[in-house]
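Regression test case RT-17, inverse folding.

Input:
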């Protein structure tokens, strides 16, 4: 059984890896916009987002390590599942994290506004951001989602399991897509929060762009979330749909808050860019993640009964 402390660490971890996954791609769009429109505010926001992404991956690694340490006795099924993948997959993961950080550090080294006017430097930035983003998104969400699915359905695979086998599982694919949309929403929220100084009109445009990204990604999560629900084990699905009162309540509240986030993001996208509204959107996003994580862990029978109260 998982403790409330471990679940809290998992929530922070998920928020951090959401931002780290989306950051390079949103940063790529910002640098592209800066070059195309001679937009210094976009260039500045892109650099800040790269810094945030580096910080987020550091928080993600730290909280991930803490979560694994706390789960050593609490979730033996997860470690049994992890043992069925080749050890090289985990060693390679460490190299991928270093590669991600090195790519983003290099971007910071030559992504000033003046550098974006140089064709070769600009395409070097594009290449580094694409490599960093695809490196993180391809390897880590499918790996850890796959391990959780493998732990919940160990009999569906025989003997050692290969990474590609997990990738093609429908439940894993649906959950990874759901994660990718959540990451995109987190990237939009981050862009709204950081789009401040310099040219106020440009900042308004950046805030609106972040809101549109959050709005689109959150809308996309609704059908994908239904797909995830469909592929959950029967016991977990039943718990979320009323079999467990707390799980069902949290799940229902998360849907209500999601509607609130959609309304708030739409208002910002259409021009209500005041800082208070942006902070409200960010708070709603965090609440959705919190309630969804607790509801899912409880529905899966992993959370201690008193932890969510």
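Golden output:
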């Amino acid at each position: 059984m998982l403790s409330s402390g471990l679940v809290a660490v998992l929530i922070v971890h998920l928020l951090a890896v959401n931002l780290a996954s989306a950051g390079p791609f949103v940063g790529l769009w910002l640098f592209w916009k800066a070059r195309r429109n001679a937009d210094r505010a976009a260039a500045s926001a892109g650099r800040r987002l790269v810094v945030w992404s580096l910080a987020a991956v550091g928080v993600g690694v730290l909280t991930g390590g803490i979560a694994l340490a706390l789960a050593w006795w609490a979730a033996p099924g997860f470690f049994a599942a992890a043992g069925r993948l080749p050890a090289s997959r985990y060693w390679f993961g460490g190299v991928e994290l270093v590669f991600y950080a090195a790519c983003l550090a290099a971007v910071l080294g030559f992504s000033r506004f003046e550098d974006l006017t140089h064709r070769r430097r600009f395409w070097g930035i594009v290449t580094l951001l694409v490599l960093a983003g695809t490196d993180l998104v391809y390897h880590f969400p499918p790996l850890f989602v796959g391990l959780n699915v493998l732990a919940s359905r160990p009999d569906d695979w025989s003997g050692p399991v290969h990474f590609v086998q997990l990738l093609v599982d429908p439940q894993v694919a649906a959950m990874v897509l759901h994660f990718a949309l959540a990451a995109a929403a987190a990237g939009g929220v981050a862009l709204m929060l950081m789009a401040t100084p310099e040219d106020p009109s440009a900042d308004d445009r950046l805030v609106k762009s972040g809101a549109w990204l959050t709005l689109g990604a959150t809308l996309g999560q609704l059908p994908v979330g239904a797909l995830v629900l469909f592929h959950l084990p029967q016991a977990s699905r039943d718990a979320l749909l009323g079999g467990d009162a707390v799980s069902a309540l949290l799940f229902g509240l998360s849907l209500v808050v999601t509607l609130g986030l959609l309304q708030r993001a739409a208002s910002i996208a259409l021009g209500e860019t005041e800082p208070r509204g942006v902070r409200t959107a960010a708070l709603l996003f965090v609440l959705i993640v919190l309630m969804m994580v607790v509801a899912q862990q409880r529905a899966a029978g992993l959370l201690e009964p008193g932890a969510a109260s």
